[in-house]
Design brief:
single chain, seven-stranded antiparallel β-sheet, disordered C terminus, alpha+beta, three-stranded antiparallel β-sheet, 2 domains, about 260 residues, Arc Repressor Mutant, subunit A, Beta-Lactamase
C-alpha cells in the first residue's frame, strides 16, 4: 500500500490536501533531493496529479526544484516552521528546562511535540561531550518501537534502538491538566555511554523532576516516586524553582509559572 492510500482514511478529508502533505513529508524525510519519478513511486500519486501539486507548491515556495529537475523543501516551508516554533508558548516554557537538563546530565535533550497519534522531534539542546549523536530534529519519534529493547520504569520509557540501533532514548511524556498528552522530553545518548544503573541513578530522577519544574504539567504518581528518591524541588519567594542534585548542589531553574 502506498503512502497516499495509507493516509486517505477520514470521510471528511480532502484528497488533494492529503496528497500534498504526503509529498511534503516525503521531501522532509530525505536529506537529498528527489526526482519526479522517485516521488511518484514512493507516494503512489498519479504523475498527472503530482505534477499539478508540485507546481502549485513550488509556486508557493513550499517546494523548490533544482536545475536537474529534482525536488526539495523550499524556503517558505522553512520560514513557516521557524515562525511556528518561535511563536510556540509551549516550546518557550520547555526550552529553558531542556537547557538545564542538558547541562546537568551532559546529554542531548529533545522535545517531541504530539500531533495526533504521532510525536515529532522539533527542538534539541546539545550536550558538551565530544561524541554526540547526529541530529534527529524533524524526525517522527516513537517512545517504544517494535523490535527495540524497551523498559518502562515508573512512567519513564527507556528504549534502545528506537531512533537508531546504537542510540538509547529516555522519554518522559508530558500531559496538561486535562490529562491530554502535549509531547515528551527525550534524553538521547549513544547506547555505549549509558548503563542501566547510570540511567536509574543519574538520569531518571532529574527527568522525573521536570514535571514539578513545570507547573503546567502535573506530576503523575509514578514520576513522583522517582523524584522523591534523590531529587527535591524547592520553590522560593522569587517564584523560581530549584532542583537539588544527587550531589547536593542547588541549581536555579527558570520561572515558568507565568
Amino acid at each position: 500500500m502506498t503512502v497516499a492510500r495509507k493516509q486517505r482514511r477520514s470521510r471528511y478529508s480532502v484528497d488533494i490536501v492529503v496528497e500534498s502533505m504526503v509529498l511534503i513529508k516525503l521531501l522532509c524525510s530525505s536529506e537529498r533531493l528527489q526526482s519526479f519519478t522517485e516521488l511518484s513511486k514512493r507516494s503512489g500519486i498519479s504523475k498527472n496529479k503530482m505534477f499539478r501539486i508540485l507546481a502549485t507548491l513550488e509556486q508557493c515556495g513550499v517546494v523548490a526544484k533544482d536545475g536537474q529537475g529534482k525536488y526539495g523543501i523550499g524556503a517558505a516551508a522553512y520560514g513557516a516552521a521557524c515562525n511556528a516554533l518561535s511563536n510556540s508558548r509551549l516550546l518557550s516554557r520547555i526550552r529553558p528546562v531542556m537547557a538545564q537538563l542538558a547541562e546537568i546530565l551532559d546529554e542531548t535533550v529533545y522535545f517531541a511535540i504530539r500531533t495526533g497519534k504521532q510525536l515529532i522531534l522539533i527542538d534539541m539542546v546539545e550536550c558538551n561531550r565530544k561524541i554526540k549523536v547526529a541530529s534527529f530534529v524533524g524526525k517522527e519519534f516513537h517512545m517504544a518501537s517494535p523490535g527495540a529493547e524497551t523498559e518502562l520504569i515508573q512512567g519513564i520509557t527507556v528504549c534502545h534502538g528506537s531512533l537508531d540501533p546504537e542510540v538509547t532514548t529516555i522519554s518522559l511524556e508530558l500531559f496538561d491538566n486535562n490529562g491530554l498528552s502535549q509531547g515528551a522530553l527525550v534524553v538521547v545518548s549513544p547506547t555505549f555511554r549509558l548503563t542501566m544503573e547510570d540511567i536509574r541513578s543519574r538520569i531518571l530522577p532529574h527527568l522525573a523532576g521536570v514535571v514539578q519544574w513545570l507547573p503546567i504539567f502535573p506530576a503523575s504518581r509514578e514520576t513522583k516516586r522517582v523524584t522523591s528518591a534523590t531529587t527535591a524541588v524547592i520553590p522560593n519567594t522569587s517564584s523560581k524553582y530549584y532542583a537539588t542534585e544527587a550531589l547536593g548542589a542547588r541549581r536555579p531553574l527558570p520561572a515558568l509559572a507565568n
